[in-house]
Amino acid sequence: MVMDCHHLCVIFILFRACQGELHCKHEDCGDSTSLYKERYESQTVVEESPYMISPDDFYYKFVAEHRPLVMRRAAKNWPANKVWTQDYLIQSFNEGSQVSVTKGIQNFPFGSKLHLPIKEFFVRSMQEDLMLCDKPTTQMLSDMTAPLCLRCQQFMKKMKVLYWSRQYQSDASTSLFFHPDEQLLTVVNGSAKVTLVSPLYSEKLPFNPEELLTISRLNTDIILKLSSEGIPHLTADLHKGDMLYIPQMWWQHVTLSADYNQFVQFFWPSKMTPNLQSSSKTKDLNQLPSMQASLRSLLRKYEERFLVMGVPPLDCPLQDKRMSDYTFETGKMSPEEYQAIHNGPDFTEDEPCNFDMSNQQSPCHFDTCFEDAEAPICIRYILEYCSRWEDRGCAIELPQLLNKMDKVTMEQITTMKSPYLQAN
Ligand SMILES: *[C@@H]1O[C@H](CO)[C@@H](O)[C@H](O)[C@H]1NC(C)=O
């Protein structure tokens, strides 16, 4: 008995030491990533809880470990479940004002958007493959209860909320895509089957040269295809009132299985703590890998680092509240209301360069990035740099980088001449 405990303690101490930030090159921490891999590969369905869990449990057991979770019927008492009829929504969105709509569910969420009056959306979506995805109105926010597990500063401070609605033909699927933020997907009405793939396996997924952030080739029988290619994955069947936690950067595929679906999606950013560390060259490549390959390897590295990162303590002073008691970065509002929220010091970010300053080839020294970090040429430079160099900045900057990518930017990035090769 004593020996057993001794053994366990040593493992535990090693694990903690490894988590202790700085010294975690991924060769050293390979062991802890393999612990996560083992657990994940032995599972086929997402873990579930029959009810909502506490912020502490949610944060330390699931978010910090990037472990997906279904909380059954956690939103079953939302007023939204009863009151969000079409008439109510038409009145709430204020008839004339327009909502953002994607045509063709396989183009969701990155494809181009139509802007329609909501009434026209409801009429047209009876015969057309249209999906509404827009910010809820302030009135709609008051029909939702802020999920108990999210009532903490870390989650609520930069929370975004989106409303989805679709009523055209059941059993339609999105492509396989990912989102750079953490997510809690809530079924207000309808049902869905969700398939998830950890970013640790990004490089195993097939890719299409035309797509960077999505994979549409897998669309039918996705589970069969993933199984036949030996790619570990998890599935969850969601019904009215269920909530699903989807970790950031995880590949997700959603099949809407009812003929009328209404969802609410909560998003919040999860950031790595920057730590200075010098960069090192991974490989001497004659040719840079494709954008798809670079991005996927970056996704894997991001997850590996995330899993061994120290966890900041949780801060939860807030109690029972409606969604409308919080201020969001989203929410349909007038420019004046928006200004009132966005005048704090919160949004002036002048962070030092997160990449290795001492490396002359790092994006810190690429002029365009210095002037405009959102320019497509800068994003491309970073992707190319990160496929040649191990640099902590690559993982830290990934969510911000991805948040800036839309379909047009993506096309520019993949077709331009290599700025990295030109500069170095
Ligand atoms: C939920 O969906 C069902 C059909 O699937 C529909 O009859 C009902 O009206 C919907 N509820 C709301 C509030 O929209």
TrEMBL record:
Segments forming domain JmjC: 124-284
Coiled coil ranges: none
SUPFAM superfamilies attached to this UniProt entry: Clavaminate synthase-like
Gene3D superfamilies: Jelly Rolls
PROSITE patterns assigned: JMJC (PS51184)
Signal peptide segment: 1-20
Protein's organism: Desmophyllum pertusum
Source organism phylogeny: Eukaryota, Metazoa, Cnidaria, Anthozoa, Hexacorallia
Protein name: JmjC domain-containing protein
